Amino acid sequence: MTGHEKEKEHIDVSNAILIAAKNGITEMVKKAFQSYPVALYDVDQDKKNIVLLTVEHKQPHVYELLLNLLEDETINDTVFYDVDRNGNTALHLAAMKAAFSWPVPGAASQMQWEIKWYEYIKNSMGKSLIYVRNKNGKTPDEVFTESHEDLVKEGETWLTNTSEACSVVAGLFVTVAFSTSTTVPEGLKEEKFHTLASKIFAGSSFVSFYTSLIAVIMFLSILTSGCRERDFRRALPWKLLLGLSAFYLSIASTLVCFTTGHFYIFRDQLISISSSSYVIACLLVTVFAILVFPLYFHLVWATSTTVPQRSYRLSIPDWLFIDE
């Protein structure tokens, strides 16, 4: 093989490994590195090496591979501290808004994962790059704030609309649960001893009232929080999750309370009709759960995930997703 052919082959491998890094093809990056280890130090026309491209395109699996190579001392740490043509470090590129949508629901979760990705890169790089300025004179934190202004507004709007809708319904459940807890069915008044049905009725009405009250408080706290940029990391998502969890528990306990009281009153009359009504009620609640639980589970997954992922790792049937 002539020198020109070797140079052409090296250029092809270099282009391949940079393209693979941008697209998150970890296997190709490994293969190219095994063939030409020096290709990891090549740059594109904007002077971006494999680390800068991986961070810019937010590819966690490729970045984890590069960190493992660094820990094994297979590559030099200087590749993590290079800058591109505009003086941007890896932290500057991590601070820029993604050119795609993360696989999480709502603008608030999108903002949360943007913060998580930025913090993930910041923690892996150390504090040495936090105060470095690019050619525009901006630090990574300033770049992050500037590039995410619109997303913060979108997240605030999404949280406000969601909280307003849920707080209204949760408020209705507070009223119903309070009325139920203070109204004892006639059949229970005549009992001399506390039966199992009476205990279930009392317990479910208690749970329904307090969970719906907690839900209202959580949704109101979101509406009055102001939705600052840093609040999207933990405070706002956890308030939303706690509010939704309490709200769904309130719905389930209200169903149990109603069914128990209804069954106790008509336990000796119209058994077949009342049993059919219970089955229909359970089916309706099951349909409701199928429609709303995907959003809830996606919020749980988005909040509990430490490192953002470009694609889902959960196997959820497509027909469970709500059409947007």
Spell out the blueprint of helices and strands.
Blueprint: H1 3-23, H2 26-35, H3 50-56, H4 60-71, H5 90-95, H6 106-125, H7 140-147, H8 149-181, H9 186-189, H10 196-223, H11 235-265, H12 271-304
Helix pairs in contact: 1-2, 1-3, 6-8, 8-10, 8-11, 10-11, 11-12
Total number of β-strand segments?
Answer: 0
Q: What's the helix count?
A: 12
Catalogue the unreliable spans: 3-11, 313-324
Percent range for helical residues?
55-70%
Head-to-tail CA distance between termini: 56 Å
What Rg do the Cα atoms give?
28 Å
Order of H and E elements = HHHHHHHHHHHH
* Largest sheet properties: none
Shape: elongated
Proportion of β residues?
under 5%
**Global mean pLDDT:** 82
Secondary-structure class: mainly alpha
Describe this structure in words.
This protein starts with a helix and ends in a 20-residue tail after the last helix. With 324 residues, the chain is mainly alpha-helical. The protein has helices at residues 3-23, 26-35, 50-56, 60-71, 90-95, 106-125, 140-147, 149-181, 186-189, 196-223, 235-265, 271-304.
Q: What's the short version?
A:
The chain has 12 helices and no strands. With 324 residues, it is mostly helical. α8 packs parallel to α11, α10 packs antiparallel against α11 and α11 (235-265) runs antiparallel to α12.
